Amino acid sequence: MFKPVVTRTILILLAMVSAYLIIVDRQQQKLASVGSTSTVSSNQATQSPGGLIKINPKTGLPYPGTYQLDKIFKVPELHALNTQSELKPLRQYTDGKFTLLTFFYQRCTDAKGCPYAMNIFQMVKAKLEKYENADELFQLVTISFDPLRDTPIMLRGLEKKVSNPKKSKVDWSFLTTESIAKLLPIIDGFGQNVDVNVNSTTGNESLSYSHVLKVFLIDKNSDVREIYSTAYLDKKMIINDVETLLIEEKNKE
Known about the structure:
Elements: H1 8-30, E1 45-48, E2 51-56, E3 61-62, E4 73-74, E5 79-81, E6 87-89, E7 98-104, H2 114-128, H3 134-137, E8 138-144, H4 152-162, E9 171-175, H5 180-190, E10 194-198, E11 205-209, E12 215-218, E13 223-228, H6 235-252
Parallel strand pairs: 7-8, 8-9
Antiparallel strand pairs: 1-2, 2-3, 4-13, 5-6, 7-12, 10-11, 12-13
Helix pairs in contact: 2-6
């Protein structure tokens, strides 16, 4: 009798679909009050099930602070290597500032994957640097999927290029790990989905990347407050959410 075999790949694909649906559902709830943004006028407010939500006609999004971003999960208490080959707690790169974090690898050629995320990061960074005290408020973090090739020394030049302290107000840190074995707990902690292949001859491990691109918005307490997928990875939406967190912080004072 035929017995179905559930492989790690199948489980990962199921997890990817589930994660994508969760992200889409959360973003659709946030935008449920918007409807067709092309019909929003300068003084128009759209009725949502929970009440009256005012829409910013310039962005087509709810005004910052008129909606809530829930705490989804904590950044895992794990460690990663910085570009100086120093092993540091991940939360050292997420505590104390509003953080935008994603996973990438330099060899990625998927137009809707890492290159797209890096381009969005560049645009968001340029916008955030216009805020007063930007150096004290914001930071960007990218963690490599490919520790065998994206070594600290390989990432050092890239980090200097995008986060020159003489020109940049917003730090952009590039992190990696010592091995795939050290990377996997971090990936699992953030709910990323990759597959591990083992070469039957050499025993070497490699990763297969099936992109469900995720970008994480993290508050000053290392709580993940939003997760963006490719469909919702938009500079305007990210800035809107950042400003919502800034308003939330101000209201607590």
